[in-house]
Amino acid sequence: MEAAEKPWPAMSIDEAYRRLTAPGAPFEMVEVRRDGVPFRAYARAPASLRAVFDAGRTWGPRTAFVHEDERLSFEGLYRAASALGRVLADEFGLAKGDRVAILMRNFPEWPVAFWAVAATGGVVVPLNAWGTGPEHEYALLDCGAKVAIADAERLTRLAPHAEALAALRFIGVRAATSELGRATALDRLIGPLADYERLPGDALPDPGLSPDDDATIFYTSGTTGRPKGALGSQRNICTNIVSVAFCAARAALRRGDPIPAPAATAPQRGTLLSVPLFHVTGCHSIMLPNYVNGGKIVLMRRWNAERALELIERERLNSFGGVPSMAWQVVESPDFARRDTSSIDLVSYGGAPSAPDLVARLRAAFPRAQPRQGYGLTETSALTSSNAGEDYVARPASVGRPVPICDVRIVDAEGRDVPAGSVGELWLKGANIVKGYWRKPEATAAAFENGWLKTGDLVRADEEGLLYVVDRAKDMLIRGGENVYCVEVEDALYTHPAVMDAAVVGIPHRLLGEEVGAVVQLAPGKEAGEEELKAHVAARLAAFKVPVRIDIRRDPLPRNANGKILKRTLRDGMKGPDRG
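Now predict its structure.
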């Protein structure tokens, strides 16, 4: 006889928050200050990434990363990162606070580089591996990187910029001798991946990190000008690790289950990492919590739904996700029915609009799985809110309730709080909010005010505090989880001599969420075709930023009384049958 299904919810959301954050509870909070501004922080959060790194070694022989037929254990990862950390300090002169850039695909050497820099007290600067040579040159010079750790493809892409980057030292990963240029091969410095477990096991010197010390710089494009480096502190990144655990605990209490806790004797969980580690989702919300909890991460060279299903079956993985399009592609794959996916108990995604009917599809495809989506930004160190399990099924249009260390305001154009249930701009404050933009005081002042981050996203909140994103940040669209800032693409179009006016908008796409579209007005007497303009943009920006469709006009683009282009009108004019 089957056990009766437990009634849901077992308790209110408010009660779950009270129990989890009460004095002595796992997610107890304390008030801290930075620059005189008070905010809440988790009382038991790790003090620094170095503390996290040392604690993760306890998982020893467990597999930490799988890449194709390669396997890297926690002990091997610890020894390799420690060996590279010594090289960075002793041979490259890395000191606390120095920046080191990582430019590579999701190889096992990525976390080795991350932990080597973090454990030594350096600042990790992950750069978008899809970026162009000029984009990389700008970021490397802007952050003042001392060292760049790059794979063969990125080394080749940076070769024409050798003169501008003459002061920078390079370490090459998975690069043939002919591809290294002036880079030193990682294998020569610490040996091949197969030998990592035989490296010395001595701990690195303690760099003496405190919670407010710099930890990371993740670049995020602005609506105007050059990309900005979001400067994250040790507290910011460690807070996200705890917030991920909080969201799982909240969902468990709502179901009437005990709070989940990692245990050395519990079966190891496995996660398919299908998003880049150079994004905060991949780094902060997947790599780091798995490291803390002894989880196995399986890396993919590039996304492919059929390969994902093969790896889920082969490695008996428990979770996968990324952006909503990836979940759609998996459940609609022709290989789905013939693959064993019974091990999956969590499908998690965010970073792009999600169709509410995706929840039902996932519940049908994975009967044991809890679907989950969330909301976060580079500036919020990943997770701000999460909607999981039965809460998500009940309200699939919501991105969930913010984690308890986040204060929330929803304000009008004058910065005044709007009435409950009304739409306004989302402002956030808490231990997860980054310190500002690296060496960009004006951009920092525009986005941050007395500890509050002005997200630029329009939201509303329901009676239980769950958020609903109504529109996203001004002049930004999201293609398959990748942020594309319209002004950046428009600027590229404007450099063509035949372009007089340009507007970039999102074209709906069922799998990717949006694709890049553009409307261009040609200058009088000038000619340019769609393919010519696409090639012009492709020569200047990464491939995912190139418009898939460019409408060419002779008449002026529609504008309002203030002279602003009516992008909504243009967007509606470009809608058609969903692509894909």
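The mean pLDDT is 91.
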